[in-house]
C-alpha cells in the first residue's frame, strides 16, 4: 500500500513538473514570439518581369563568352587525347567521332541544357543551388535556423507534397536520420570541390593546347616556349578578373562568336575536301564497332572525351537558344571536319586541329584559338566565384572578400583571394605537366565526378521538388549512369597518369569545407543551448540591473530568437549598458536573394520600458554586403518605421496582444505560484526562472495600470530613439575562440584546434563583412568548448 502511495505521489509530482515546464515554455515563447506577422506584412507579391526578345538575344550572345567558351575549346585537344599513341585504323576515327557526337547529344544538350538547367534556383546553377532547392523542400539543412517567417519571402519558392505520395516518402526518408543529411552534404561538397579543381585544370589545358599551335608551324621550337607563353597568358587572364564578367563578357563574346564561325566553316571545308563519308558516324552502330575493335584501349580513351556544359547564372532561355541553334551545330561540324582530315592523315593525330586548317587562315585561326582558350577559362573561373559565394552563405566555406563587379547583374562577382589561389594552381599544373595528355586525364576525372554528383542530386530533385513519376526518374538515372559510369571506369584506369591531380585538390578543398561546416553547426547548436532565458533578462527590471547610458547598442548574434550567451557575459562584467538595445541577427537563407523591402524584420522584446528590440537582416546566397549598402542606416530606418507603425496601431484596442504577446493575468500569476509551491523538489532548480517570471508579471501589471495622464507625460519613443542614435551607436560582437573539449578524440582536436583555428585566423571577420567602423566596435571575448 505504501508503495502504491509513493508511486502515486511520484506520478503526481511528475505531472506537476511537466505542467510547470510547459508553463515556462509557453511563457518564454510569449516573451519572444516568432516574426511571422511582421514577415507577412513585408511580403512582396511582385513577380519579376519577363525578358524581352532583344534582351534574350543580348544575353544569348553574352553567354557565348561566359558559358560555352569552355566547351567550345574542346576541339583543340579531344582527338589528341583520344589517340595519344597514334591511329591504327581509319574506322577507329569514325567510331571515335560517333562517340563524340552522341556524347555531345546526350550530355551537354539533352541532360544539361534541356533538363539540369531547369533545376536552377532562379538563375543560379551548380551543386549548391540544387542543394538549396532540396533544403527548401525537405528538412535536410544541418543548421536548424529555418523559421516560419522565412517561408513568407516572395523568393522562397516551394511546393507542398501530398501525403502518401512517392515524393513524400522520399522526403521522409531523407529527413529520417542525421547521417543521411550529412551524407547528402558531403556529396554536394564533393561536386563543389571537383568544380574548383576543374577551374584550375580548364585554363591550363585550354591555353596550353591553343599555344601549342606555335610548335606546329615551327617544329624545331622547344616545348618550353609554348609553356612559357601559356603561363604569361594565364597571368594576364587572372589579372583581368577584377574588371568583372559583365565587361569581360562583352569583350569575349565576339571572340567566341568568331571562333565558332571559324571552326564551323573549317569543318565544312574539311568534310568536303577530305572525306564526306565521315558523316556515317551519326549512326550509333559505329560506337559498338569502335569498342569491339579497340577493347580496353577504347574504354581508356573514353574518360578524356567527357564534355561538360557549365550551369551558369544566365537565363535558361538564353542558354538553350545559344547552344541549340549555334554552339551545338558548330561543334558537330568542327569534329566531323577533323575526323575527315584524320582519315587520310593518320600521322597528324597529335596536331589534328592545326594541321587541318587551311594555310591561308592559319594565323587568324591561331589568334582566334588563343582568344577562345582564354574565354573558355573564364567560364569556369566565373563559375568558381559563384560556387564559393554560395558555399560561404551555406556555412561551408570561410568568409572571403567578395566584390560585385556589375551594377546591373548581382551574380557577377569577383573573389580576390580565390582568384590568386586559382592562378597559382593553374601555373603549377601547366609548368609541371607541360603536355595536354596528363592534364586531359586530370580534367576528365574532375568532370566525370561532377557529372555523377549532378545525376544523384537531379534524381532527388526530380522526386522531391518536381515530383516526377518514379518511372521517368528511373529512365533518366539509368541513361545518365550508363554513360557516366562508363566514363568513370575509364577515369579509374588513368589515376596514375594525371588523374590524381583533381583528387588531391578536391581532398584539400573538402577538408576545408567539411571542417568549417562542422564547427559552424556545432557553434550554432552551442548558441542555441546556452542562450539566456528571456524571463531572467526581464526579471532584472527595465534597467537590466545596470546603469542605462545614452546611446544604442547593437548586439550581433546568430540567433533569430532568444538572448545570446554573449549578452549575459556582457551585462555581468560591465557596470553600464546603452539606453536602447537591439539584438541584430544577420541570417543567410537558402534562397538566391531577398528583396530589399523584405530584408529587415523588427520586433519589440518585452514592455516599452525595457527599450529592447530584435532585428533580423535576411540575405540570400546571391546577395552581397556592399559598403555602399548603408546597413546601419537601413536598420534604423526599419526600426523607426516599426515604432511609427506600432504607435498608429496602438489606437486599436485589439493591438494590446501585439504589444504584450501573452495575456498575463493575476489568475495566471497565482496559478504559477501555486504550481511551484506544490512542487518543492523543483523549486531550487527553477527558482531563478520562477522569480524572474513573477517579477516580469508584476512589471506587466504595473505597466497596464498606467493612467492616461501618465502616458501623455511619457517622452515620445521615436524622438528618444533618434536622440540615442545621435549620442552614439556601438556594435557589440563576440570575439569567439573555439576549442575542442578535454577528452575529445584526436581527429576532432586536429580539426578544431588546428584546422579551424587557422582558417578562422585568416578569414574575414564579421565586422569587416558588415563594414562596421572600428571606432564603433566592441568585441566581447569568450571561449566555446565543443
Automatic annotation (TrEMBL):
<feature type="transmembrane region" description="Helical">
    <location>
        <begin position="533"/>
        <end position="556"/>
    </location>
</feature>
<feature type="transmembrane region" description="Helical">
    <location>
        <begin position="184"/>
        <end position="205"/>
    </location>
</feature>
<keyword id="KW-0472">Membrane</keyword>
<dbReference type="InterPro" id="IPR053952">
    <property type="entry name" value="K_trans_C"/>
</dbReference>
<dbReference type="GO" id="GO:0005886">
    <property type="term" value="C:plasma membrane"/>
</dbReference>
<keyword id="KW-1133">Transmembrane helix</keyword>
<feature type="domain" description="K+ potassium transporter integral membrane">
    <location>
        <begin position="60"/>
        <end position="537"/>
    </location>
</feature>
<protein>
    <recommendedName>
        <fullName>Potassium transporter</fullName>
    </recommendedName>
</protein>
<dbReference type="Pfam" id="PF22776">
    <property type="entry name" value="K_trans_C"/>
</dbReference>
<dbReference type="InterPro" id="IPR003855">
    <property type="entry name" value="K+_transporter"/>
</dbReference>
<keyword id="KW-0633">Potassium transport</keyword>
<comment type="function">
    <text>Potassium transporter.</text>
</comment>
<feature type="transmembrane region" description="Helical">
    <location>
        <begin position="443"/>
        <end position="465"/>
    </location>
</feature>
<keyword id="KW-0813">Transport</keyword>
<feature type="transmembrane region" description="Helical">
    <location>
        <begin position="250"/>
        <end position="271"/>
    </location>
</feature>
<dbReference type="GO" id="GO:0015079">
    <property type="term" value="F:potassium ion transmembrane transporter activity"/>
</dbReference>
<keyword id="KW-0812">Transmembrane</keyword>
<feature type="domain" description="K+ potassium transporter C-terminal">
    <location>
        <begin position="550"/>
        <end position="785"/>
    </location>
</feature>
<feature type="transmembrane region" description="Helical">
    <location>
        <begin position="409"/>
        <end position="431"/>
    </location>
</feature>
<feature type="transmembrane region" description="Helical">
    <location>
        <begin position="225"/>
        <end position="243"/>
    </location>
</feature>
<dbReference type="InterPro" id="IPR053951">
    <property type="entry name" value="K_trans_N"/>
</dbReference>
<dbReference type="Pfam" id="PF02705">
    <property type="entry name" value="K_trans"/>
</dbReference>
<feature type="transmembrane region" description="Helical">
    <location>
        <begin position="93"/>
        <end position="114"/>
    </location>
</feature>
<feature type="transmembrane region" description="Helical">
    <location>
        <begin position="51"/>
        <end position="69"/>
    </location>
</feature>
<feature type="region of interest" description="Disordered">
    <location>
        <begin position="1"/>
        <end position="20"/>
    </location>
</feature>
<comment type="similarity">
    <text>Belongs to the HAK/KUP transporter (TC 2.A.72.3) family.</text>
</comment>
<feature type="transmembrane region" description="Helical">
    <location>
        <begin position="576"/>
        <end position="594"/>
    </location>
</feature>
<feature type="transmembrane region" description="Helical">
    <location>
        <begin position="499"/>
        <end position="521"/>
    </location>
</feature>
<feature type="transmembrane region" description="Helical">
    <location>
        <begin position="472"/>
        <end position="493"/>
    </location>
</feature>
<keyword id="KW-0406">Ion transport</keyword>
<feature type="transmembrane region" description="Helical">
    <location>
        <begin position="323"/>
        <end position="343"/>
    </location>
</feature>
<keyword id="KW-0630">Potassium</keyword>
